[in-house]
Amino acid sequence: MVRETVVTPADLVMPLFIHPGKNRTEPIKAMPGISRITADLAAKECVELHRLGIPAVLLFGIPASKDTKGSGAWDKNGVVQNAVRAIKKEVPGMVVATDVCLCEYTSHGHCGVVQKDKVLNDPTLDLLAKMAISHAQAGADIVAPSDMMDGRVGFLRKKLDSAGFIDTSILAYSAKYASAFYGPFRDAADSAPAFGDRATYQMDPANAREALREVRLDIEEGADMVMVKPALAYLDIIRRIRDSFDVPLAAYNVSGEYSMVKAAGSQKLLDEKRTTLEVLTSIKRAGADIIITYHAKEAAAWLTR
Questions:
Q1: Domain-located, residue 273
Q2: What is the CATH number of the domain that holds 231?
Q3: Which of 69, 159, 229, 297 is catalytic?
Q4: pLDDT at 67 over 80
Q5: What pLDDT, on the 0 to 100 scale, is given for residue 199?
Q6: DSSP conformation class of 27
Q7: I need a labelling partner for 150 at 20 to 30 A (CA). Which of 5, 43, 53, 287 fits?
Q8: Is the peptide bond before 230 cis (omega within 30 degrees of 0)?
């Protein structure tokens, strides 16, 4: 009766990894319980997620082939585009968000155009816009740029509007840190950089005030929602942003955070169910309105029993 923070399935977003083919599942070793799936299976999965009360999914694509520009990212018959159409046909009420970044599609694994081992900000924006528009054409409700290129939110908003997608929302990865907690994701998406790292365009984990500047810029450029990524080591950042801005705030409970709980649970070092629900409660208590988490499906089942 006096509980201050309540987590419900409606707070959760389930990330899905989409790969080519039909009726094909490929378990991700680094993330127990999570698999790469094809578009048809993603649609079936969304039936179950919707039944559990989860309102949205976030799609990541693993294409059949990659190149230096990541051209598969804006292919109208790409893995994500096909999945969006399949999900919308099967579950019209499911909110579909798509990750907009080139790292899963480039042969070098970086999030933008590379020239002489340097990631170029402005030339990348044109490619991100092509990707976002192709997702919107397929039926995506939300595009979520995770690349951390400067000015990309305003650029995408302008290009989406010009293409007639004025109702497509932008969920900006505004405070995305250069974190060690992304390791299992890079295995899942086959997106580890071939050289260097992403510290030149993702945020320094030591910085907090910078996060507020990044969020303010993205809101000014037209972001409908903003995000903090990762979540657990950045609860203070979630709280600062919640106290400073009155916009929908998402937090991404990332792959490393998920895999740690799974590993400890499998070794009986922690009670997996209690730990998972405590983690999700802490993220919401810190101020997140939306929790993107690989625990979403199992957590929703626990919460509705």
A1: yes
A2: 3.20.20.70
A3: 229
A4: yes
A5: 72
A6: E
A7: 287
A8: yes
For residue range 254-293, what is the model confidence (pLDDT) as tens digits?
999 999 999 999 999 999 999 999 999 999 999 999 999 9
The boundaries of the domain holding residue 42 are: 9-304
Collect all residues with Cβ–Cβ distance below 8 Å to 253 and sequence separation of at least 6: 230, 231, 232, 279, 280, 283, 291, 292, 293, 294, 295
Domains in the chain: how many in total? Answer: 1
Q: Phi/psi at 267 (nearest 5 deg)?
A: -90, 5
Q: Is residue 89 flagged as an active site residue?
A: no
* 35 pLDDT higher than 80: yes
pLDDT value for 190? 65
pTM (two decimals): 0.94
Q: Is 69 a catalytic residue?
A: no
Is residue 2 included in any domain, yes or no?
no
**4 located within any domain:** no
145: phi then psi, degrees, rounded to nearest 5: -70, 120
Please tell me the predicted confidence (pLDDT) of residue 286: 98
CB-based burial of residue 223 (10 Å sphere; 0-12 exposed, 13-18 middle, 19+ buried)? buried
Residue 1 within a domain: no
Question: Exactly one of 66, 88, 176, 262 is catalytic; which is it?
Answer: 176
pLDDT averaged over every residue in the chain: 93
